[in-house]
Amino acid sequence: MVISYYGLSCFEIQSGGTSLVFDLPARNASHSDAGGPSKKSAVKSPRFQADIFVQSHDHDGHNGVESITREKEFFLVDSPGEYEIKGIYIRGMKSFHDSVSGKKHGTNTVYMVRCENVKLCFMGDFGEKEIKPELKEEIGEIDVLFVPIGGETVLDAEGARKAINQIEPTIAIPMHYPNNGKALKSFLAEMGQKDVKPLEKFSIKKKDITENGTQIVILSVV
Description:
alpha/beta
């Protein structure tokens, strides 16, 4: 399995001949930390095709599937529920984009994806103060956690650390943070990490996963 990062919350998971994409940005999207279309996003929507698109919520920086050209058939998962597509198991779980039960920015879907026997958890724009016990139970044991760290309408550095401590993944990959690097530096400091060098891509196999705490992996934007 190979993981590539395209900025904001967009990742491509490549497993053999199957490609799964989380939160593809819309073409010419506008995006703000408040979760609405108020300014141009620095994130460019990748123009590739994929077999499966997984969408956490319906904001411009995350809902770009409808704007792509359908050169081949694909599947869109954009709501809670259980799915099995091309041998990949996906479970979507309802959460909120804010700390007031969605009254400001609506709902968000957290996804657990099992691929090559590796369990991924994609938190999307999770904005609650903490992970509720029932959601934690649904998420279960996780190998790779994609966690937002940028603050405002998603978890900040401290909130991300708490989420990581709750879920206890083998690997945590931060996302949804500004390009200025401040949020990332705050997150690494919160996690007690230094000298974490960004990777262009991250390859992982189940046999390589160990139980020696949580490893922080930073991915450069493709």
